[in-house]
Amino acid sequence: MASNDPVTAIEAALERNPDINLHQFPVEVSHDSRNDAIRLEGTVEDIIALRKIMELAKAEAGTARLVEDLHIQTSVDVTDDQLQDKVVETLSGERLFRDVRIGSGSEGAPASTAPEADWIVVSASGSSVHLEGRVHSLSHRRLAEALTWWIPGTSRIENRIQLEPAEEDSDDELSDAIGLVLERDPSLDASQIQVTVKDKAVVLEGGVTSDVNRTIAARDCWMVPGVHCVENRIQVLG
Hints:
Histidine-containing Protein, Chain: A; 11 strands; single chain
């Protein structure tokens, strides 16, 4: 429930959540009353903490607009050009994007892109990756972000990819996007994992060969934008 003091309410909610380590990874929460905006800044432990922080903040913010400037900790040191090139290489190698024009920089659609064609432009600055463009399905938009999170050195993603034509989101669509991500993780056998989504809450069932792979499957789900929570019922076989 939203509080009359959203900053205090958000800070209390973050403190209570066991997956958010504010003592090691403090998050600064501030309220710009002139613009009725709540700003969250800091470095967080992982993608799970990032997503949960934003969900909790939304629940307590009331009518205030959220401005997020949160980075995931990374020990990989790469230049902006190296990170940008790796994202372009990764997205260009994805079979689902074979008809998507992918480029780098910040000049909008790549040259010679047809008006109706899908396109993605990648830029990087200080370990933050910016994705802009136009695609025809939510799964494309979600997959682009998830694949970018996999790239070492990525600490933040600003996903500005537009959807044309508009598509209504649904649990089935989110489930399909999660399935695409799990299928692309070389450490997993996605055929052995069942995904159920209800009101953006994900339940994973099935079997994997190790505790590490069980954790990886849940983390992959959190990398898909739109996931609100993940219940991991996957069993470790053998």
